[in-house]
Amino acid sequence: MKLIKGKLRLVALALSLMLVTLIVYGAYSLGLSGNRWFSSSINTSLRKVRADVIPGRIYDRNGIQLAGSNTAGDRLYHQDELTRRGLVHALGMKDGTVKNGVEVFLSYLLYAYDASYLSRLTAAFTGQMRQGYDLRLSLSSGLSRLVAEQFPAGKAGAVVVMNYRTGELLTLASFPNFDPLRAQGVLGDPQKPYINNATQWRSAPGSTFKVITMAAALQHIPDVRSRTFTCEGELPVGDIVITDALNARHGQISLERALSISCNITFAQLALELTDEQLRQTARAFGLDDHVLFSDLVVEDSSYPTSNRVPKELAWTGPGQSALHITPLQMCMAAAAIANDGVMMEPKLLLQAVDSRKVGKSQMVPTVYRTPLNRSEAKIIAQAMRQAVAGGTATRARVAGLQVAGKTGSAQVDRQELTNAWFIGFLDEPTLPYALCVVVMDAGEGSRHAAPLAGKIFQYIKDNQ
Amino acid sequence: MRTRVQGDSRRLTLPGMLFFFLGFLLLGLQTPDYRAFMLAVLVPLAFYLVTAALLRLLSADRVLLCLVNFLCALGILALYRLNPARGLGQTFNYAVGLLGMVGCMLLVRFWQRFRWTLPLIALAALVLMALPLMFGTVKNGAKAWVSLLGVSFQPSEIVKVAMVLVMAFLLSRRMVLLALAFAGVCLGLLFLQRDLGTALLYYAISLVLVYVSTGSLTFLALGTLGAGAGAVLGYQMNTYVQNRVSIWQNPWQDPYGIAWQVVQSLVAMVNAGPWGTGLGLGNARTIPEVETDFIFAAVFHEFGLVFGILVILIYLLIFLRGVGVARRARTRFHTLLALGCSCFIALQTFVIIGGNINLIPLTGVTLPFMSYGGTSLVSSLCIMGLLQGVANANEHGLEEDQLMALMGEEDG
Hints:
The complex is a heterodimer.
Chain A: H1 2-39, H2 45-52, E1 53-54, E2 58-59, E3 65-69, E4 75-77, H3 81-91, H4 102-105, H5 107-110, H6 117-126, E5 130-131, E6 134-137, H7 141-150, E7 157-163, E8 169-175, H8 197-200, H9 210-220, E9 229-231, E10 234-237, E11 240-243, E12 251-253, H10 255-260, H11 264-285, H12 311-317, H13 328-339, E13 344-345, E14 350-354, E15 360-363, E16 368-370, H14 375-391, E17 404-411, E18 420-427, E19 434-440, H15 446-449, H16 451-463
Parallel strand pairs in A: 1-5, 2-6
Antiparallel strand pairs in A: 2-3, 3-4, 6-14, 7-8, 7-19, 9-12, 10-11, 13-16, 14-15, 17-18, 18-19
Chain B: H1 2-30, H2 34-57, H3 62-82, H4 84-109, H5 111-114, H6 118-135, E1 137-139, E2 142-148, E3 151-153, H7 155-172, H8 176-193, H9 196-214, H10 217-237, H11 239-249, H12 260-272, H13 295-328, H14 332-356, H15 374-396, H16 398-407
């Protein structure tokens, strides 16, 4: 009997711990992901909440009102159509036409989900609608309008502009877009204007990926900067041949030069030398294969190819042409990390939330997401990207009086007739810490079709600083 | 000592009565409904009668009884809110369950006289367990239900009671091999029915009882390894299990498809906030199978996080109280029986609430005392009856103990 009773204590302890785990885990997961679950489009209770609460107003970074509500409960938007179009994907719509977006993903603030029990009770008894929190976002309505105006007509794509020191997003635009005041029939549109291509579309980023391959080379190949690479115009790997755009032959070049003129052969050689493991390691440091959970926005996970044990696949990954799946936002963050001495900030949309009595409910805190490379590696890549703008493939992004760094990309995807034009870049200016990513799908070369828009955006930033 | 405990339980009874009175009153007022008003009187009354009056006839652990009744009544309230017909049905199940509970108490109390029925109980258990394989219907991937004379029930729920009794008895007599064989046959039959959640419970209980009675760490280690192997095997062989595991790993990868149920449960809980939406104001009915598998999420949804935590704490208290009964027991049989009963309730609670909050993959076992389901409620109350029988024997069985000692019954 004594033997049994000694064991009782052990069993009692083990099972009690299991039951306590239920409480701890439940409270922990609700605390960690509660807002996310509440705001997800699957939450059918939101409809009920919406009947009781007037959603808060939304302002841009300069205090310009982007969305409000009238007494009938309809959502009101900015009076200018181009501004509305430029912001529609970032803001989203409360009926979920655009999945996520501020109107849905931050609905726990717009509908004051954390309001005190007392205020709920008061509202229930007085019959008054409760007032949600007003949000001030990091978005710039002026820049978003410019982007909507200047983006190549009739093309699909995305533009992301962010402050690389703080992570604040100035523009998160997707094309084709639509006017939220005329949203009927949008969900049936075969062009799918309701999808946010900046965060939900993933593709091979073409040569813009070379900045990541270059980071891997700097990290894993000690003498890579003193080496000279030979580009013969062709590099046979297995049963395929890697070539350069326009079948160019670059001859003897350094690593920096290879980036600024975008030499595929050099970056294919580097990928093969790095091996799949090392390239993957660096790509993951840049946020690929991560399960992305940002506080202010929902982003599809970007991924590194799983099929890279085959040399020819690996060789094409170096110049960014294989089964890479990367969102424009993620590439913007890569450029931002290089600009910010290797520190990648978490992208943010919400600067501040206040309740109807102007009491602060949420305040932006710049958050480091990752540190994919160190300061000196970042400086080397930034220098090569400046050369690309000064005298390489990205000269069309030049802006007089500004230090612009950039990298173009022309990604061949599926059997598209024309390539997707990519551009990532940033301003190397202490007072204008902005990075961007421009993607114009099915347009041609990045140098010709994406870089000029980047130049216009930088010019706007300079003129409106 | 005894008066203090009685005082405690009275303090527990009154707020409980008030709680249910107000709860049903509220439901009645929301949609003028005379049946709810009736229940507003009847449920508190039953709550009082069972906790106070029953104990005048048969002594038992009052706190335990009071907590269990609270959960049963809470289940009726939550079910009535979700589906009045099922709420009313559950009151009937509860009444039957109470009879079963008293029956089981008496069985344990007068075990000396009923001991001869044990082989019959064991045999009946095995026959019952084999029934679904012959006449069963498939429900949620498991072939665990039987329809007999127009009544549909789940034999594995009823066999639980017999299983604890048989295992405790055999192990108290150190017939370990026989006990293992019995558990093995039960488990085999459960596996064939693909009722894996229940199989998991049976397995864990057998493991705990054999470990406690033999004190063999080797057995515990082997058993745990065996459980791991069984889990891998079950996973490999059954796409249903693979689905459940992949939902558990990331319910948000397919929230509108296979993970709809779990995701709706999580969303229901997050909509609750600390104090809940309020009784009758939530919409937990969006969760499929809410009355059986997700009753905890539904209660959480309308009563809130704080109440949800309290419900788990009530289960913890019931378990600890049960272990206390086992510690005070004077025979090996009583100790093992009380422990087996307590562990059954605690483990089952863990498995299903863990599934509700996505701590572990979801299995279709019920939440003891609260889920809708006649078989489940009756069997949970019968298990409580066995436990209360031991509690009763602890207080009254001294003379019988001496008698047993004379008859050669093992006594520590």
